[in-house]
Design goal:
Length: 473
Amino acid sequence: MPVNKKVKSKKSVSTIKKSVKKIINKNSNKKSNLAKNSIKKVVAKKLISAKYYVSETPLKYADREIFGAIKREYKREFSGLELIASENIVSRAVMEAQGSIFTNKYAEGYPAKRYYGGCAEADVIENLAIDRAKKLFKAPFINVQPHSGSQANMGVYMSILQTGDTCLGLSLDAGGHLTHGKKVNFSGKIYNFEHYGVSRETMQIDYNEVRDLALKHRPKIIVTGGSSYPRFIDFAKFREIADEVEAYLLVDMAHIAGLVAAGLHPNPVEYAHFVTGTTHKTLRGPRGGYIISTNEELAKKIDKTIFPGIQGGPLMHVIAAKAVCFKEALDKKFVDYQKQVLNNAKTMANEFIYKNYNIISGGTDTHLILVDVKSSKGITGQIAETVLDKAHITINKNGIPYDSESPMVTSGMRLGTPAITTRGLKEKDIIELVNYMDEALTNYDNEKIINSVAKKVDALCKKYPIYKYISEM
């Protein structure tokens, strides 16, 4: 293979290193350290292997724009509090696995049945991910290859449904997900989705309504679980309804997977035909999906649908990170963490109620809280998101049941405690944080007060730093 003429040879690198010694000998210890750092930068900039066309230049020199964005994102996360319910802060081990050499490997197929050579270690990683996930969720069969929760749901639909089949799911405004049949999503375009909602009085699922709709429409699959539903779901009741109309039951546990893994939330695997989820959110892993099947025949259909049906090569670096996160979730410390997630969520909900905010459904059984800011403060979710962002608190505007505002405006905001709990915040910090949020939202048009809140948030963040090794890059 020809050598890139612009690449520094080993001899050139050696010459640079000799220059280091000369500089060091000519300076005091303090100046020597400066000289060493200067030469390190030169070597880092220039050192590219002379034997192959792969740069070994560190990112900070190879692509300053991307490196700059990463550093700024680190600063944003370090100096602000993440309250988006679907976000978390992964461990260094998860991050290292996802950024590993497995990003190079193509491994179409499944362990011991690959369409490419050189997959021995890929098999090790995928088998570890499968075995750990089975143990974690008490699941008989699991596919860890879906690239996302949405593709996991797609995998289930395409394994058992035909175009135009009738389905029944939780509506988006009641706390469901786009892939539960929203018309703008593939699920609502390919399949005929009917929807159940929540009671106007309790803002919780009305199981009588679910049964009535199931009997009326005779769906082939019933979908439950959601992205902004803060209460326990009666999976046994859903299975009873599904059996009555001879439908499959799919539980989307993307949001609650970490709580389920810790034994702090009812496990849908006992009741559903299929369970889908993501490895981020409460599970605190990389961004990815998985599908649990509760019998072998269904598991075979899922495997064929994922590959070669809707995906090609699996993302082996992500599967490696999934395996790491499953191992972390099997540790007793993870149970303690999830208990704190719940304690923080309940504390946050109670503090908002104490301050006369309208909390949808009156509280929470999970990691998330849905707040009606329009009826509470006379502002939209969009305004709340913007104001809190200025105060270094990240949330997302969110529709609420029977919302009169558009999805880009909304009447509500969704809050979650996984990321701030990972960071180390506990009940007393949550009370302090709710005070800051209330101060900013009450004075949403007062920049001076919002800036003052931002400084208080910065001070709180410094008590709970993250990723020290990144800050030293």
